[in-house]
Specification:
By secondary structure, this protein is an alpha+beta fold. The protein has four helices and six strands, in the order αββαβαβαββ.
Length: 136
């Protein structure tokens, strides 16, 4: 304590549970600042992955499908995951195989931009599939 007061620094208890306790003489304000700076730098380097949704219908035309596929390629290029949902209405529920065909065509159009993370699955009135960006 005397040495720390002499140097006008702080005595910081580094390992209080150790026998004997370990202390360090340093400028506590500067120490806190450097820790905050390291945390901020680590946070900056994190990549936040969002999930973007694209809705289709079982009787979608080819041009509309290519437009939606191009949009999905953009999302995958940005590093986001894509949730592709085919919504069935009314009598379309009797022809869920059409929705599966639409999703298969969609995957062919997206091609190398992404991979299937979760295959197509019918959940209620929606058939949902997840695409993830291809890692380098």
């Amino acid at each position: 304590m005397e040495i720390a007061n002499e140097r006008k620094l702080d005595l910081v208890n580094v390992a209080p549970t150790a026998k004997p306790p370990v202390c360090k003489i340093l400028d506590y304000g500067k120490y806190k600042y450097e820790i905050a700076k390291k945390e901020k730098e680590a946070k900056k380097n994190q990549k936040i992955i969002n999930i973007k949704e694209i809705r289709l219908s079982p009787n979608i035309e080819t041009h509309d499908l290519t437009t939606k596929a191009n949009r999905a390629i953009e999302f995958l290029g940005d590093g986001d995951k894509v949730k592709v949902a085919v919504r069935f209405r009314g009598r379309e529920m009797g022809h869920t195989e059409m929705g599966r065909e639409v999703l298969d065509d969609f995957v062919k159009l997206v091609g190398d931009a992404g991979i299937i993370e979760k295959p197509a699955k019918l959940e209620g009135r929606n058939m949902i599939m997840y695409l993830a960006p291809k890692s380098e």
